[in-house]
Amino acid sequence: MIGVVLIAILVLVLAWANGANDVAKGVATLAGNGTANARRAVVWGTLWTVLGGLTAVIWGGALVTTFSSGYLAPGFRVDLAFVAGTLLGASGAILAATRLGLPVSTTHALLGGVVGAVLVATGPGGLHAAAIANKALLPLLLSPLIAIGLCWGLLFAARRIAHLKPARFDATRTGIEQQMRPDEYGRHAASVPGCNDDHKIWTGVHWFSSAATSFARGLNDVPKIAAFLILTITLVPGLAYVLHPVGPSWPIVLVALVMGLGGLWGGFRVLDVLAHRVASLDAGNGVVANLGTSFVVLLATPLGVPVSTTHVSGGALMGIRWADKAKPGQIDALASILFAWLVTLPVAGILSGMSVWLVQLI
């Protein structure tokens, strides 16, 4: 029973780390163009993330199955050491990235944790290689490319239809306003009575599109993490019966709430990077980025496809950036973000493999 309690704590640590690293992905566009300050943006994103996570009770079953057993060979024996090692590897990678202000993928970290733990426990024979390739690696590689193309296409089409200048989505700005940074313009437009009804409409749509992105993130991420708590309960004979009065959905509810607390506690480091160091944002292209992200993630979740909200939202911002033909700036974080994406899976795998080895020794 002590082992179960420790693993439950590790699941909640992972949920906390996920909230701290991922809440920015739904609200970075709000903070990036001055629509909201960092605190309001994080609170808004946390609220909708938790609501999305709670919705996973009825809409996230496919992802729970995928992450609890979908990547393991039929003969692999799941034990508490394997679960603990996977969680330690994933949590370590995400917490380190959050401390550095780098947005990384919980899906990548969990996948790396599973692979590293299995390789140390039994070797390659314990992995379902075809499932990992088709249900994990392929969606993880394709989803950011889809988001890049989708957002670039949406922004290009919107500008063509409205005959807007490529430099800014809002063609109603004055000459002085055209020279402003997006965050400066957002504050300026809000301070002028009767200024630009179109801007106010876009701002309202922007808030709702950000909510949709945060909701999609919670819906996609909560079941992945809760799957390990559900799996642990099944490993202890009689524990599921003891917990039956609580109801079958409590792991998802608990993970969603802890994820929200993690976002409120540590969501600001990554927010600063995504909001100001990837693409120049205004209300219009912020809406496009959020719509592209939420569309891809919401489509993938009921199918049990574990796309990375980090990669999709980052891809959406890159699509905006390339549509604007923006050149790298002195504080550009794109190279660091791409590097973090590349190393997340192997780092989590190494940490989880070491953790399984230590747990087996203990």
Radius of gyration over C-alpha positions, nearest whole angstrom? 21 Å
How is the biggest beta sheet arranged? Answer: none
Oligomer: single chain
Helical coverage, percent range: over 70%
Shape: globular
Number-wise, the strands total 0
| Cα distance spanning the termini | 16 Å
Sequence of secondary-structure elements: HHHHHHHHHHHHHHHH
Mean pLDDT: 81
Low-confidence stretches: 164-179
Q: Helical element count?
A: 16
What fraction of the residues are assigned to beta strands by DSSP?
A: under 5%
What structural class do you assign from the helix and strand content?
A: mainly alpha
Characterise this structure.
The protein is mainly alpha-helical and 362 residues long. The chain contains 16 helices and no strands. Helix 6 (106-121) runs parallel beside helix 16 and helix 7 runs parallel beside helix 15. Residues 164-179 have low confidence and may be disordered.
Short structural description:
The protein has helices at 2-22, 24-32, 38-59, 61-70, 80-99, 106-121, 129-162, 175-178, 182-191, 197-235, 239-242, 250-266, 268-276, 283-300, 309-323, 334-361. The protein has 362 residues and is an all-alpha fold. α7 runs antiparallel to α14 (283-300) and α14 runs antiparallel to α15 (309-323).
Secondary structure layout plus pairing:
Layout: H1 2-22, H2 24-32, H3 38-59, H4 61-70, H5 80-99, H6 106-121, H7 129-162, H8 175-178, H9 182-191, H10 197-235, H11 239-242, H12 250-266, H13 268-276, H14 283-300, H15 309-323, H16 334-361
Helix pairs in contact: 1-5, 1-10, 1-12, 2-3, 2-10, 2-13, 2-14, 3-10, 3-12, 4-10, 5-6, 5-16, 6-16, 7-14, 7-15, 10-12, 10-14, 14-15
